[in-house]
Amino acid sequence: MHSPAKWTLFRWAVFAVLIAACFSDGVAQQALPQHGKRAKKLLILNAMKVDGVGTPAEGPVDIVIEGNRITRISPSDPDGLYRLDADGVIDATNQYVLPGFINMHSHLQNSAAGIEMPYEYQHALWLSAGITTARDLGSNFDEAKVEKRKSASGEIAAPRLFLYPFFTGEMAEEEIRNRVRNFKQAGADGIKCWGIDRETFLVVADEANKLGLKIAHHVGVEDANANDDAAVGTTSIEHWYGIPDAALDGVQSFPSDFNHANELHRFRYAGRLWREANPEKLQQVLHMLVDSGVAWDPTLCIYEASRDLQRAITQPWFDAFLHPALEKFFTPNPEYHGSFFFGWTNTDEVYWKENYKIWMKAVRDFANMGGIVTTGEDAGFIYQLYGFGYLRELQLHEEAGFHPLEVIQHATHNGAKVLGMEKELGRVKRGYLADLVVVNGNPLENLQILLPRGINKTLDLQHGAQGGISWTIKDGIPYDTSILLNSAKEIVQAARAKTRP
């Protein structure tokens, strides 16, 4: 018979052997997470962490996710007891973990050019690009609410959604106020103003501010401009309309036959606007916006076809992922919004290249003054494909002069601040919601690494086996991006079989 002391030692020895067995093969004996299913406890091990607030990467670290929250971040420890009862493990050795990306300018679309296109396709491309949150700036509001509910409950693989329904058109003041109140009552998170004059905009803004609704403003070429956005404290200016307009000496030099309803005219002369802005007035406008707390969501990617149409129509991801609905919608046709390239010239591209230089400098100046810059894609228009357009947006922010760490900050923490969610989203931090992007390589070295493997041949040659987002984690639910991309590809193939002879 063993003595109590010897029996205790024996039990501790057995326990030690079991612990050693658990870790003898590192993380190999622990299962990968299940795609689309939230684990009770999910581990990301040996990762380089980028917080999202502009601070340098650090690591390797182990990240513990319990339910939908990050509960621990610590230096990697192969003997850590927190590893014992994990339901899923991602070995992120030589990989980087970023906060989930926030797409601040999106549109839910289930058809284009008269062809149906399932939301599932859009959601899959967004998630595969690391987008865990999308601000919808105008779509079918009732359908968008259903998608938002399903996403929040985990019923569908989709980013979390913030809904800003359209406000456009002219009406009496009481009708304006009632419409804003109805949006609030119906569950809107904010309002997207577009195509309204100053008088209407000021009433919308007054009522929205009373109700606590945020405002995203696509100013357009109206009598309203950035001065009005500063006056009412607009949440964010979309694109750039309204900013150079407010810095003109008089009005833009439109030709006598200009017709704003003609999109070829509209986009052609939009490419000549920034050069007409008074540089001193422009700086004053930027300071005024910063002082009023107006953020800027420039969507640099959505007009890139205007400066390089050839690049736009030959994007490599179109081969596998361009849905026939978008393919038809992008084809030059005055009936389709943004499909105005039936009369585009080299001269137009030259002006737009200059336009981008001045515009990008203005965004950089705005940020240097303390302004909040965010990232959005506005995909589904002008040759931009969901997700891929967003990743191109990040590259263009670097072209504008921002360090990759600043670009990641624009895409994560800054977006969360504008949404009013900076205590929940936009950081890799204990206590925050588990919205994360696991990247197979170092995106700070090359933002193109975020693109899927096999898409960019130059990238494949340069980085070998590295590249691509391997996992997107939204609200604690891990998604294998290869599964998402295959799903999107299958949807496209099925649609092509129906629409092509």
Describe this structure in words.
The protein has 16 helices and 18 strands. The strands form 4 sheets. Strands 1, 2, 3, 4, 5, 16, 17 and 18 form an 8-stranded mixed sheet that branches. Strands 11-12-13-14-15 form a 5-stranded parallel sheet. About 5% of the residues have low confidence. It is of the alpha/beta class. Helix content is 38%, strand content 17%. It has a domain of 319 residues: TIM Barrel, CATH 3.20.20. A hairpin with an 8-residue loop joins strand 1 and strand 2.
Keywords:
single chain, 501 residues, alpha/beta, TIM Barrel, eight-stranded mixed sheet, five-stranded parallel sheet, 16 helices, 38% helix, globular
Topology:
Layout: H1 4-23, E1 41-49, E2 58-66, E3 69-75, E4 88-91, E5 96-99, E6 101-106, E7 111-112, E8 115-116, H2 119-128, E9 131-136, H3 141-153, E10 160-163, E11 166-167, H4 173-185, E12 190-194, H5 198-211, E13 214-218, H6 226-232, E14 236-238, H7 263-270, H8 279-291, E15 295-297, H9 309-313, H10 318-321, H11 324-330, H12 346-368, H13 388-399, H14 404-419, E16 436-439, H15 457-463, E17 469-474, E18 477-480, H16 481-499
Parallel strand pairs: 1-4, 1-5, 6-9, 9-10, 11-12, 12-13, 13-14, 14-15
Antiparallel strand pairs: 1-2, 2-3, 5-16, 7-8, 16-17, 17-18
